[in-house]
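notes to self, project folder thing:

trying the whole complex as one job this time. last attempt i did each chain seperately and stitching them together was a nightmare. two parts in total, labels are on each line so i dont mix them up again. if this works i'll redo the older ones the same way
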Amino acid sequence: EIVLAQSPATLSLSPGERATLSCRASQSVGSYLAWYQQKPGQAPRLLIYDASNRATGIPTRFSGSGSGTDFTLTISSLEPEDFAVYYCQHRANWPLTFGGGTTVEI
Amino acid sequence: EVQLLESGGGLLQPGESLRLSCAASGFTFSSYAMTWVRQAPGKGLEWVSTIIGSGAGTYYADSVRGRFTISRDNSKNTLYLQVNRLRAEDTAVYYCAKVLIGWWFDYWGQGTLVTVSS
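result (full assembly):
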């Protein structure tokens, strides 16, 4: 099973600042990585898939990069609605797994 | 508009069984794989199971294989998860999600809560 380690666990920032979230895989997943956003009481929302492709309707301030074992989600300038928990997920093989999440807080 | 509506959750005792349902609309249901993901209270996301569009292929997390069965009825646009021999650690919100090509989850329901407690 591929383990995804997300860091930091919590990121404390202000609106307008840049957020950089990391996801490290225990073995190579190629470009087969996605990022999701989850707000309290809501279902997750797909942000990025295949490491760098924005999902439908996702603002351009969200970008993804990386390949192999190291991936980054960048939010270029935080909006108030971006404060949430972010998860990475791989699809390189079965079982699919998620990272433990990074909380972006004000 | 894609809509997914889960139902069937509740309070159960260890060892009991239940069936979760997910009613889908707004897309050609039979053309897409579907998945179940769960989230224990205050915890992260855990992939549970995926079924391909025809229903002929299924995949399970090790933690549920042999106890959970995913299925679908394409004539009713409905996804199911049969959950047997429930354990306390199965307590979670269970989400169904539509699978985008590439095993990504692009639309999610609001979830149904399953609580296992004696």
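what i see at first glance: The two ends of chain B are 40 Å apart (CA to CA).
need to look closer tmrw
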